[in-house]
Amino acid sequence: MSFQDIIGHATPIAWLRSAMQSNHLAHAYLLIGDEAIGKRMTAMQCIQAMNCDTHADAATPDACETCRSCQQIMAHIHPDVLFIQPDEGQGQHPQIKIERVREIEHHMIYRPLLGPRKICLIDNADRLTIGAANALLKTLEEPPDHCLFLLITSRPSALLTTLKSRCLTVRFSPPSQEQAIAYLMEHRGFSQFDARFISFLTNARLGEAMTIDLDATKAKQQEFFSLLFDDSQSSISAGFDAAEALSKSGHIPEALLWLWTGLRDILLVTIHAQTEFLFHEDHLPTLRELAQRTSPQRILELLDTLHHLEQGLQRNLNSQLRFEQFFLQLREAIPPA
Ligand SMILES: [Zn+2]
């Protein structure tokens, strides 16, 4: 692949390439932006471009992916490039510990063997422990001339301010929905309908959209979106049963997401928005029928309740009670037909 194959990110790519081309690279960059939108892919492409045997003298730096350097970088065995990421097998919150930073110091201090510089890519840099971050800061304060650090994070606020101040920040934004939809149709063979559904759902984060299971996602949509109008709304006690099942399901965040998308769609239909903005366009007749029985104001109130419900759950408040309240309010906001 070449830089052209990366969807979106035109500005950060242009900036990094021109720095490469004019040999004005800083010693450290911090790549920030949402998860799974292409920060790491872009960083890898840059590292390959800097070392590519085929493009070494090209006016516009790029990577061929077939030369020895490109292959070694892809396989993480290039002698001048060190890849650091949080250690697996540490449960939910893997960290980058100080031992890894010692490894970085040891690697970076020697001159490069093959390419123009020694490169260290630190993925999920927000996972550096305080000790590790402070040790890395020392290296970044006086980096050897041949060093390039690429730090990647989707949570820049979790990074030491002093560490951030040592890096040039490169911001990444998700590609446009149009770009993501076209890409998914081409690379996953989705229909336009499915591509739009997945692109909306992942907020055009292609890293996630490329691996998401379409059938499983549609099954979840069916399961949770339909809570807004199916049996759970047939009686008050049915609503209570649904609340109990949901609170014990272990899928509360997913359920909240789908309920939110469903209410959002009903709201859009009540104000006669274009159908192409709907998540659940495949349920348009249902959405229209629900919209006839309610008002934008009542749906906004429900969305507000859902928001508070989510906040309450983060504080470990009783989820069953909160869902019961939600379903009661739902029954009032959209009275049964
Ligand atoms: Zn190459």
Q: Care to describe what's here?
A:
The protein is α/β, with parallel strands linked by helices and 337 residues long. The protein has helices at residues 10-21, 39-51, 68-74, 98-108, 130-141, 161-165, 177-188, 192-201, 206-209, 214-225, 236-247, 252-270, 284-292, 296-314, 319-333, and strands spanning 28-32, 81-84, 118-122, 147-153, 168-171. The chain has 2 domains: 3-171, 3-Layer(aba) Sandwich (Rossmann fold); 213-333, Zinc Finger, Delta Prime, domain 3 (Up-down Bundle), CATH 1.20.272. Helices cover 51% and strands 7% of the residues. The protein has a 5-stranded parallel β-sheet with strand order 2-3-4-1-5, with helices on both faces. Helix 7 crosses helix 8 (192-201) and helix 12 runs antiparallel to helix 14. The longest helix has 19 residues, at 252-270. The relative contact order is 0.10. It binds zinc ion.
Mean pLDDT: 92
The proportion of residues in beta strands is 5-15%
Which strand order does the major sheet show? 2-3-4-1-5
Shape descriptor reads elongated
List the topology elements:
Elements: H1 10-21, E1 28-32, H2 39-51, H3 68-74, E2 81-84, H4 98-108, E3 118-122, H5 130-141, E4 147-153, H6 161-165, E5 168-171, H7 177-188, H8 192-201, H9 206-209, H10 214-225, H11 236-247, H12 252-270, H13 284-292, H14 296-314, H15 319-333
Parallel strand pairs: 1-4, 1-5, 2-3, 3-4
Helix pairs in contact: 2-3, 4-5, 7-8, 10-12, 11-15, 12-13, 12-14, 14-15
